[in-house]
Write a structure and sequence with these properties.
The structure is a single chain. This protein is mainly alpha-helical. The chain folds into three domains: about 5-45; about 55-145, Orthogonal Bundle (Recoverin, domain 1); about 165-255, Orthogonal Bundle (Recoverin, domain 1). The chain is built from 13 helices and two strands; from the N terminus they run H-H-H-H-E-H-H-E-H-H-H-H-H-H-H. It is globular, with a radius of gyration of 20 Å. The protein starts with a helix and ends in a 5-residue tail after the last helix.
Length: about 260
């Protein structure tokens, strides 16, 4: 069943961080189809492409890590050296913040254009200053729900292993859900439900679509965080992905559902 227009608008705002007016306009253009409106916003509505003059200090830092075979990118070895110099472990959530800031096209890759362009927009001109900038940005994103949603949505495409891949393997999705959501303040008291979700997925055995990825965050925010024990906000007539409905049925079968 399709969501009501007000529900679709609220979900679009929650997923993308856009304003209600923008959400209404996008939904009207796409005949109130939520997924199409989300895709349109993320593809066209949040670009960070304002031209900026490059800084020679940033170029020097980039050259330290660039791929010798392809100077237009930093490959996985250079990325790992850069993370080490920043004092960030690859499993640290701050590594996602860095990738988000540099608009990394995939894991283990930074492009010359984004590295030099995005860092040149800041006042950071050394690795130490870059480290502090990422620390501050990470804290800001954690405290700003709209920026966090942008980081969360970015992570799906970033985590793809192959060009053209559209589905995220369950083990990879769980790894990033744990990194992004498990200890997040707004989900305090929800860890048992996350653990149940992860256990359910081992029986589901289907890869995660982009729509499911986006809606899982919304489900835990609107339903689970509001009532972790009873899940009283769950509405089976709402437009949740089928995998979430199946999760609820799985909980009911085990005596843990609403």
């Amino acid at each position: 069943m399709a969501p009501s227009r007000s529900t679709a608008r609220n979900q679009l705002v929650a997923i993308t961080g856009c304003t209600p007016a923008t959400a209404t306009s996008l939904l009207e253009k796409h005949n109130w189809k939520l997924e199409e409106a989300v895709n349109a916003y993320l593809e066209n509505g949040s670009s960070r492409t304002t031209p900026v003059a490059s800084d020679p200090q940033i170029e020097h830092i980039y050259n330290t890590y660039q791929d010798q075979g392809d100077p237009e990118r930093i490959d996985v070895d250079g990325v790992l050296r850069y993370l080490e110099d920043l004092g960030i472990e690859p499993e640290d959530p701050r590594s996602l913040t860095l990738a988000f800031f540099l608009e990394a096209p995939s894991m283990g890759v930074f492009t010359r254009a984004k590295f030099i362009g995005n860092w040149s927009r800041t006042t950071a001109r050394s690795v130490a200053e870059m480290k502090q900038y990422i620390e501050n940005l990470h804290s800001t994103i954690q405290d700003d729900p709209l920026q966090f949603v942008q980081l969360y949505n970015f992570t799906f495409d970033f985590s793809m292993e192959n060009p053209g891949q559209r589905l995220l393997a369950i083990d990879t999705a769980v790894e990033y859900w744990k990194m992004l959501l498990y200890q997040r303040r707004e989900f305090e008291g929800c860890q048992a439900r996350f653990d149940q979700w992860f256990s359910f997925l081992t029986t589901h055995k289907k890869a995660i679509t982009k729509d499911t990825w986006r809606m899982v965050y919304l489900f835990f925010k609107e339903v689970v965080a509001a009532d972790p024990s009873g899940l009283s906000g769950y509405d089976e007539m709402a437009s949740w992905p089928s995998v979430i409905d199946e999760y609820i049925e799985w909980l009911r079968d085990s005596g843990e559902g609403p």
